[in-house]
Amino acid sequence: MSFTLAIVGRPNVGKSTLFNRLVGRRLALVDDQPGVTRDLREGDARLGHLRFTVIDTAGLEEATDESLQGRMRALTERAVSMADVCLFLIDARAGLTPSDKVFAEILRRSGKMVIVAANKAEGRAGEAGYLDAYSLGLGDVIPLSAEHGEGMDDLRMILSPVAEQFAVTDVEEHEDDSDRPMQIAILGRPNAGKSTLVNAILGEERLLTGPEAGITRDSIAVTTEWYGTKVRIFDTAGIRKKARIQEKLEKMSVSDGLRAVRFAEVVVLLLDVNSPFDQQDLRLADLAEREGRAVVVAVNKWDTEDDKSEKVKFLREELARLLPQLRGVPLVTISALQGRGLDKLRDAIVKVHETWNTRISTSRLNRWLIGQVEAHPPPAPSGRRIKLRYMTQVKARPPSFVAFCSLPEELPESYIRFLVNGLRKTFGLEGTPIRFTLRKGENPYEGKTEKRMNGSLKRGKR
Prior knowledge:
It is a single chain. By secondary structure, the protein is α/β, with parallel strands linked by helices. The protein is about 35% helix and about 20% strand. It has twelve helices and 16 strands. The strands form three sheets. It has a six-stranded mixed sheet, sandwiched between helices. It has a six-stranded mixed sheet with strand order 8-9-7-10-11-12, sandwiched between helices. Strand 5, helix 4 (about 125-130) and strand 6 (about 140-145) form a beta-alpha-beta unit. The radius of gyration is 27 Å and the shape is elongated. About 40% of the residues are buried. Associates with the 50S ribosomal subunit. GO terms for molecular function: GTP binding. Keywords: GTP-binding, Nucleotide-binding, Repeat, Ribosome biogenesis. One of its GO terms (biological process) is ribosome biogenesis.
């Protein structure tokens, strides 16, 4: 990436729409109501031959106190300081407002290069606002339509010399798996402390936090190095019970958060120590298991707990009782606000990620299978003996196994659980889902009937 471009402006002028167009996909939530974006969101932008980093910011507010709007403005000002170039967006149809003039002065004092663009300038309705923007005294104004893609070529022409100025002399970078950051999603109910945790990991106030529940609205991804491990962390919107999700924007936020789980490799389920294992927490854990993600349970606000020894004993018992499908999942107590327990959390994440990637040789699996069957033979329904003949691992991420069996449809679910628990204990597969499938046949190349266990032990045909 050659330079960083921050898109700034009043609420609802189209910053997120332009951001999505520059990155080429719908990363930021977009809605008609103002103030949807609250955090800083970074993306890899492409504009013709140009490659650069773009930052979507919260709408600039005139508040400067510790209110939510004041904290949003402080974050936007921080984005201005991080950027090489600021793209100041105004609404051509609404025309120039007093707030636009205030923020133009802020940008002028910043000393950064500023490009003014009048969005929603398509048609005659935006002509007057576009011309008024020249009165800001910040140079030429680009007429844009972020929604329809108009004016992108003009923007590219203005940014081209900027790209040359910040050009990287390195040859084209080649990213391999060893350089790829570990993908981590922070999941939890509103006000569990997800954004505070991400800020603690980053060591800076990057995401908006506060006592108000539901501050985060869309999934924000940030890349950093955490105790020597390169990670990409998705901070998601707090997910409430479905019956309580009413507003269109909140539905979009929840959908965005659930999509982040599918991108993740490890899910950190963040619980509030004052109300752990709420029904919604259990649903989120089940979601992570069904998606096949490695899981770590982190209990936040541990600094507020008085009887820590009794509480941790209770939490472990409840975890084993309520989430048997995630048997052995690590439980870590932390205080995101005070930055305590983060080293243990990172170690647990690295361990479950390694487990999630585990591969076991076929010879080891079959020696284990023979031992299991000899020690505890499968039942013989209706007097028919069930033979387990062969077993192999078909993939990792999560560990997935296939066993060939004479009568797969007759093998009880309890015996499958026995095999899965044996796999978990023998090969150290704690903290990760296990996929186990039975097929009918003498060897890996014959048979059609199968039974698949996907956490909930459902039967099916392939």
